[in-house]
Amino acid sequence: MARLSSETLWEQAAAEVRSQESGAADWDGGEAVCERSVFLMGSKAGGKTSILLRCLERDEPPKPTLALEYTFGRRARGHNTPKDIAHLWELGGGTSLSDLIQIPITLVSIRSLSVVLVLDLSKPDALWGTMEKLLHATRAQVENVFAQAQQAQRSRPGAKAQTAAPSAARVLPKDYPDRELISPFPVPLLIMGSKYDIFQDFDSDKKKVISKTLRFLAHYYAASLIFTSIKSESLMSKTKSFFSHLAFGLDRGKTVSCDPGKPLIVPAGSDSFRQIGSPPTTDVDIATLHAKNPKDLWKKVYERVFPSESPGEQRELKDPSKDPQYSEPQIDAMRAQKDQELEQYKRNAAKSWKELELET
Fold it and tell me: Residue 5: how many CA atoms within 13 Å on its side-chain side?
């Protein structure tokens, strides 16, 4: 008999996976299965799906992500041991579907949640806006969930806490670089710069601006940063290490590269504002920019080099069925015909009501 509840389809699917894996653990001797959640978001058509498939070692062609998609990965700790599970959520549509962020970030997932922000290096004009909107929406949802958890704990003081309090959501070491000057993201964050194969052919000055800006942002949010390309086996190997660290708790490696002429690989905590330096600008006096804070200053300098897209260019479709990348000629033609029939029906109905009013 089908289960009737207020759970979403995603939550039911995740619960089913947990139930199956729990049964496997009992069969193997009762060892607990470790579960983590990873939420991927970022630039539209920025390569999120391709990167995810490579990290999961799945040999299948990537398809455009429709709204929000769920999959999972499993990894065994050793021979005859239960497999740890990574619940993987991917948000499509760039920033247009940011309202869906509330679905994967819940009281259940927040305890082991990590976020991966994929930014398309080949489109620097949209980079800052994409980063700003998605991280703002994600932080707001995370803080909202933590607030719900605190309220639940206060209402049931004798019950076991279901999640950590916001103040303990992510505690940085006391010796973390610039600890008093940064604004750590409330959950572990990995920023990926995708399509490095295109980016590497950019003008050196532009590459320097993008690289230093992303280093600043990563350090400001206490995040890790890596530049990658699905066309480079070496970069994908390093990317997979960072991904596996979030998804399965594996070692992410000790490689660090801050040279703007090479792919950046900057684990959280290995950079500092002193090493990053000031915003790279030669055509304007920084003192004249009237920035409210360091982040605002970097934004103003970055947008001097890469002006943000105009509102008309920035407008994204809320309805995925009207997005060209999901076009299906036969279905679209039938939909257009039905839309015309609906409009005609509306006009006829309105005409009938007007005639009825005149008769009365």
Answer: 10
